[in-house]
Amino acid sequence: MQPQIYKSEVFDMACRQFDIAADLLGLDPSLYERTKYPKRCMAVMCPIRMDSGEVRVFEGYRVQHHLSMGPTKGGLRFHPAVTLGEVAALSMWMSWKCALTGLPYGGAKGGVCVDTRDLSFGELERLSRRYMQEMISFVGPNTDIMAPDVGTNEQVMAWMMDTYANHVGNSVPAIVTGKPVSLGGSEGRREATGHGVAYLIKSYLNDLNIPLDEATVAIQGFGNVGSEAAVALNAFGIKVIAISDYYGGFYNAGGINILDAVAYVKAHGSLKGWKGGDSISNEDLLILECTVVVPAALERVIDENNAPKLRCRILAEAANGPTTNQADAILKQNKDIITIPDIFCNSGGVIVSYFEWVQDLQSLFWTREEVLNKMYKILDRAKIEIENQKKKLKCSRREAALTLGIKKVADAKAVRGLFP
């Protein structure tokens, strides 16, 4: 019976993906619900004093999907649309992602319902610290390790690490990942997700025998992941012709000046007002005629309405859950489009978060080149496993990735047994 506390479209979507994969695997009924649903969730109220003196209370959540293979791992997002159901779905996807890539983690996710554009720097700090304070009983370097996500960054992780350290009385760098290098962060972590996306795009372009200098890419979402993917694609000689963020997008058939766009966002906080191309909506960007479309923003942006209109050869899912179940069924019938599924496509971030955690535990650190090369090797291995599973089960690439991840979690639960 599906838990009602998580009821939402995005949670239903994650559950449906699980059901399809579990049916393909012939999953043991005794493991079905244990593997599918989150182990536990926390809902907290975070009161903070605003700069005006007013006290406001923000809703916060954390969902830990399973702890059968190690501590849980997952990001923390600050966004006005955060719900418990969304956080639960994201924790499920993180579980399959970690298992798929061979990381010793279960999935987790956290969120606070807030628009960070409405907060001052001091208010953001107070909210970050309060959230960590409320979660201290449920997190730890061997229990649950947080990382940045939508609306959070290295600075937020630094505040959270400091809050935890003040509670336990000593520095614990491994309590969060994605923090500044000066506090035990890893070289290459900031760009890892985007560079992983770009690396896989290059790999599948090579499989299709499409020359890199003839490929064109449209990226919806120019936050950390989208912008870093654009920078890496640019370095590979692949032309990015469209980018967008919350305020809208820009199209330039001759190629976007990526470094100029990145500098503009760093100076102004968004693409709003940039002059680097013709205006284009987020909706129209997704159906541009191009080689690769990269949804790098939020969930469920590709649905049954626009899926038939996609005109790309590769759909690289840099965001989590960008394609609805209905759209996925449409794309499964379209043999002209290769989908690089989210739990594989954007896994570079958690892979390098794992590296950061390992480095913190050892107090031994690697160079950026070592970090990224280790990440590429894991992505290459996972790609081979996915392509082999796709042929073996005669299924879609998404189903292949999901079955690989889910089976590893189910196997771990089966071997450990059920505690009385």
From TrEMBL:
<dbReference type="Pfam" id="PF02812">
    <property type="entry name" value="ELFV_dehydrog_N"/>
</dbReference>
<feature type="active site" description="Proton donor">
    <location>
        <position position="109"/>
    </location>
</feature>
<feature type="binding site">
    <location>
        <position position="97"/>
    </location>
    <ligand>
        <name>substrate</name>
    </ligand>
</feature>
<dbReference type="InterPro" id="IPR006097">
    <property type="entry name" value="Glu/Leu/Phe/Val/Trp_DH_dimer"/>
</dbReference>
<dbReference type="InterPro" id="IPR014362">
    <property type="entry name" value="Glu_DH"/>
</dbReference>
<feature type="binding site">
    <location>
        <position position="193"/>
    </location>
    <ligand>
        <name>NAD(+)</name>
    </ligand>
</feature>
<keyword id="KW-0520">NAD</keyword>
<feature type="site" description="Important for catalysis">
    <location>
        <position position="149"/>
    </location>
</feature>
<dbReference type="InterPro" id="IPR033922">
    <property type="entry name" value="NAD_bind_Glu_DH"/>
</dbReference>
<keyword id="KW-0560">Oxidoreductase</keyword>
<dbReference type="GO" id="GO:0004352">
    <property type="term" value="F:glutamate dehydrogenase (NAD+) activity"/>
</dbReference>
<protein>
    <recommendedName>
        <fullName>Glutamate dehydrogenase</fullName>
    </recommendedName>
</protein>
<feature type="binding site">
    <location>
        <position position="353"/>
    </location>
    <ligand>
        <name>substrate</name>
    </ligand>
</feature>
<dbReference type="GO" id="GO:0006538">
    <property type="term" value="P:L-glutamate catabolic process"/>
</dbReference>
<dbReference type="InterPro" id="IPR046346">
    <property type="entry name" value="Aminoacid_DH-like_N_sf"/>
</dbReference>
<feature type="coiled-coil region">
    <location>
        <begin position="372"/>
        <end position="399"/>
    </location>
</feature>
<dbReference type="InterPro" id="IPR006095">
    <property type="entry name" value="Glu/Leu/Phe/Val/Trp_DH"/>
</dbReference>
<dbReference type="GO" id="GO:0000166">
    <property type="term" value="F:nucleotide binding"/>
</dbReference>
<comment type="similarity">
    <text>Belongs to the Glu/Leu/Phe/Val dehydrogenases family.</text>
</comment>
<dbReference type="InterPro" id="IPR006096">
    <property type="entry name" value="Glu/Leu/Phe/Val/Trp_DH_C"/>
</dbReference>
<keyword id="KW-0547">Nucleotide-binding</keyword>
<dbReference type="Pfam" id="PF00208">
    <property type="entry name" value="ELFV_dehydrog"/>
</dbReference>
<keyword id="KW-0175">Coiled coil</keyword>
<feature type="binding site">
    <location>
        <position position="73"/>
    </location>
    <ligand>
        <name>substrate</name>
    </ligand>
</feature>
<feature type="binding site">
    <location>
        <position position="224"/>
    </location>
    <ligand>
        <name>NAD(+)</name>
    </ligand>
</feature>
<feature type="domain" description="Glutamate/phenylalanine/leucine/valine/L-tryptophan dehydrogenase C-terminal">
    <location>
        <begin position="186"/>
        <end position="417"/>
    </location>
</feature>
<dbReference type="InterPro" id="IPR036291">
    <property type="entry name" value="NAD(P)-bd_dom_sf"/>
</dbReference>
